[in-house]
Write a structure and sequence with these properties.
This protein is α/β, with parallel strands linked by helices. Helices cover about 50% and strands about 15% of the residues. It starts with a helix and ends with a helix. Helix 11 (about 185-195) packs across helix 21 (about 375-390). It is globular and about 65 Å long. Strands 1, 2, 3, 6, 11 and 12 form a six-stranded mixed β-sheet that branches. A four-stranded mixed β-sheet has the order 8-9-7-10. It has helices at about 1-10, 15, 35-50, 65-80, 90-100, 105-110, 110-115, 120-125, 145-150, 160-175, 185-195, 200-210, 215, 220-230, 245-250, 265-270, 310-320, 325-335, 350-365, 370-375, 375-390, 395-410; strands at about 25-30, 55-60, 85-90, 125, 130, 130-140, 140-145, 175-180, 255-260, 280-285, 290-300, 365-370. It folds into two domains: about 1-135 and about 295-350, 3-Layer(aba) Sandwich (D-Maltodextrin-Binding Protein, domain 2), CATH 3.40.190; about 140-290 and about 360-410, 3-Layer(aba) Sandwich (D-Maltodextrin-Binding Protein, domain 2).
């Protein structure tokens, strides 16, 4: 019943937006969906918008996990020329909303409170109103394994770090690169995050999401850096500056055994025609069972000349939240629908597990935002700086933990 209700809301958006005639308009969209799987997903939305008469003006900014796009956004806002729609996540939504820069989405938010897990709805709101619309949900704490390589060395899917390093040793002994890694601060932090989570969701929440100094500079965090240091022994020599999608290509093409990346990487596997369970395996990272680290990718809409929402903005918001786009876009992106009423029967086994885990962890307390979603830009930058410095130096784990605590406190 809810599915039909929401579908009706989405398809009648033009009526809900206003009584006047719908006017075609240019809708500039600033985003950082630039890899193969990402581009396929965003093209679905572009086509849907143009079918109802508007023109999608594409402003795609690659690199930095969105950091480059946010830099461009700030420049545009300062100059008084913000894009109409911007891909955004995390505390940035609340920050811009608090500055009265964003359009509230009351006209189209309908039953979102009942259709979204509370942990996800929370990151889209400010002062009780929705300012962001979520297009899909990503699970960050995935691990991808080249199945033929795993079979070659007689390995099994590791569930602990000890098991992981045992399999990695076998791959290394067979002449393979065990870990495909992109040597950027973004990928460094994604890898690091999964190790922190393996110490328990409560520790992750306290250390990363709350930035607790005692947790950050603790024996447990020293252990995290010890595991990170050992992991670097299985990187190849050409990691420096490698984008994450090229690291994914290494596993896709059989050049490496493991990739630690969110499920947007699965879009790359799908685009290459690879089949889960046959060509690759997707599994939660060592020690991460019962934890779902999410990124709720979404869009916000900037006020134009200080005015109300345009018809194009609200219609784009409705399209993003429609069951049809949630289904098709998520499949191309490698994600899962955010709405709990969208069936995932047509999704692959990786996504079906993610969808089931989303619901179970929402009930158990294991559903937590990624550092990209749940920390400020300043804190995230501090984490990335410390982790990247550690990976690219011979720093010891204890001093790295101390540096992390100091850097996060300074950034808060």
């Amino acid at each position: 019943m809810r599915f039909r209700k929401f579908a009706l809301l989405a398809t009648t958006a033009a009526v809900l937006v206003g009584a006047g005639s719908v006017r075609a308009e240019d809708v500039e969209v600033l985003h950082y969906y630039t890899s193969g799987g990402e581009s396929r997903a965003v093209n679905v939305l572009k086509e849907d918008l143009e079918k109802i008469g508007h023109t999608w003006v594409d402003s795609a900014i690659a690199g930095g996990g969105g950091a480059n796009a946010m830099t461009v956004l700030k420049t545009r806002v300062i100059s008084g020329n913000p894009p109409k729609a911007v891909q955004m996540r995390g505390p940035a939504i609340q920050d811009w909303a608090s500055q009265d820069a964003l359009v509230p989405l009351d006209a189209v938010s309908g039953d979102w409170d009942n259709l979204l897990p509370p942990a996800i709805a929370e990151v889209l709101k400010y002062d009780g109103h929705y300012y962001g619309v979520v297009n899909w949900v990503h699970r960050v704490n995935w691990m991808y394994i080249n199945k033929p390589m795993l079979d070659e060395v007689g390995g099994t899917v590791p569930t602990t770090w000890d098991e992981f390093f045992a399999v990695a040793d076998k791959m290394k002994a067979a002449g393979h690169t065990a870990i495909a890694h992109g040597g950027t601060p973004y990928h460094d932090a994604v890898y690091f995050e999964g190790i922190v989570q393996s110490m328990g969701v409560d520790f992750y929440r306290k250390a990363i999401l709350e930035g607790d100094a005692e947790a950050l500079n603790s024996p447990t965090m020293v252990q995290v850096f010890d595991i990170l240091r050992k992991s670097t022994e299985y990187f190849d020599d050409a990691t420096q500056g490698r984008p994450w999608n090229l690291a994914a290509a290494m596993v896709i093409e059989g050049q490496a055994g493991f990739l630690f990346m969110g499920d947007w990487a699965k879009g790359e596997f799908s685009a290459a025609g690879k089949v889960p369970g046959v060509d690759y395996i997707c599994a939660v990272r060592p020690g991460n069972e019962g934890i779902f680290t999410f990124i709720a990718d979404g869009f916000v809409f900037f006020k134009q000349n200080g005015g109300e929402a345009t018809e194009g903005q609200l219609e784009l918001a409705s399209l993003i939240a429609s069951p049809d786009f949630q289904l098709r876009g998520a499949q191309f992106k490698g994600a899962i629908p955010a709405l709990n009423t969208v069936p995932v029967d047509s999704f692959d086994d990786c996504s079906k597990k993610a969808a089931a885990d989303l619901q179970s962890t929402a009930a158990s307390g294991g559903l937590v935002p990624s550092q990209n979603q749940g920390t400020t830009e300043a804190v995230l930058g501090a984490i990335r700086d410390v982790v990247t410095n550690f990976i690219n130096s011979d720093q010891d784990s204890a001093s790295a933990a101390a540096d992390l605590a100091a850097a996060v406190q300074a950034a808060k």
